[in-house]
Predict the structure.
Amino acid sequence: MRTAFRTAIETGDLTYACYSMDASVTGFLMRNDRLDAVWRESEKSLDFVRKARHQEVAAVIVSQQRFIATMQGRTVAFSTFSDAEFDEEAFEAQLAGNCTITTVCLYWILKLQARFLSGDYAEAHAAAEKARALLWVSAIHVHHVQRLDYFYYAALTVAALYENASAEEQQAWHDLLTAHREQLRELAEGYPPTFADKHALVSAEIALGNRTEPLGPVPGRA
């Protein structure tokens, strides 16, 4: 992505230079870089895209920053993106009114992750539902990493909520778990070092709670 940024600058393509900025932050998060280092990269990226006046990419990077700040414990609580200078509800209203479906979808995936990790499973599920409604519309623009995050955290959220759900909800969630587990299985078979652990954990959550009928073998196991 840094090579893409340099090439875009050299050829005067500010749009792709901006796209490489938020994609780099995504890569740093996926690679598990130290959050303080990722935050510094996000600040540099946000400064660049704002000077380039690319509102969409700026909104994506701000969304990424709120996830980072939450994981660092810098928000007013672990259950919110808000702090003294940022209002979560106001930002969501701004996204809905001014940004593309893809940008909004990426925000809800990040919120899904954050709320699952904070143990606010009802809010995580609400975020997952909003992301799901947009994911298929914007699928061509949503990177496979973000799609992985959606399938993985949505499945774990449903598994956490399953036991106390109504029979109707359980049936719907059974179908969702089946679909998401299949997506993770395909990824795991394609490249186990990155994806097999995600598929295994979702499979274990299903089996541990005996929440559904058996959904098939785990890749790589007899």
Remarks:
- The CA atoms of residues 30 and 145 lie 8 Å apart.
